[in-house]
Design brief:
The chain has about 170 residues and is an alpha+beta fold. The chain has 2 domains: about 1-120, no CATH class; about 130-169, no CATH class. It has helices at about 110-120, 155-165, and strands at about 1-5, 15, 30-40, 45-60, 65-80, 100, 105. The strands form 2 sheets. Strands 2-3-4-5-6 form a 5-stranded mixed sheet. It has a two-stranded antiparallel sheet with strand order 1-7. Strand 4 and strand 5 form a beta hairpin. It is elongated, with a radius of gyration of 24 Å. The structure holds zinc ion (2 copies). The site of one zinc ion has 6 residues, from loops.
Amino acid sequence: MVIKVSEIPEEGVQIEGVSAFPEPFQDRSWRLEDVDLTVSKDGDTVFVDGRLDARMPQVCSRCLEPYEAKVEADVHTRFVPSPGRGEERELGADDLESDVYDHDQIDLGALLETEAALGLPMKPLCREECKGLCPSCGVNRNTVACACAPATGDPRWAALKTLADRLHR
Ligand SMILES: [Zn+2]
Ligand SMILES: [Zn+2]
């Protein structure tokens, strides 16, 4: 969804509900579940504030199983007109939270995509208490209770020892 800055009313505009974004993400496996944005402007500076809920497929960093991550992201972005070619603009400290727009247009879909991606966990976990893979035999300890002793020392040696035990049986 692209809005024209010149068409934003003085009192601002509210965009609510996923129906405003029929194809919000380039990655079709990402799902927008809810969105609520307020777009307002002050001169040629545009403020987009609100929140979004999305679900995106992830792979658990502990057990390596795919799962769906729920992302709830706050949106607080300020857009300023992009400086013309050859024009220098002083970068202030608060420009870190600013974005630029061109040709009187702001792509709210692209903003949602960025904010959703930023909301993804650095270390995805299918659940907080995920038990992960057994360092000895490699089973998913969420679904299989293996008889391996708790890992002591270097798990790579433990895996080799298990293999050696099997070979000598
Ligand atoms: Zn997991
Ligand atoms: Zn095991």
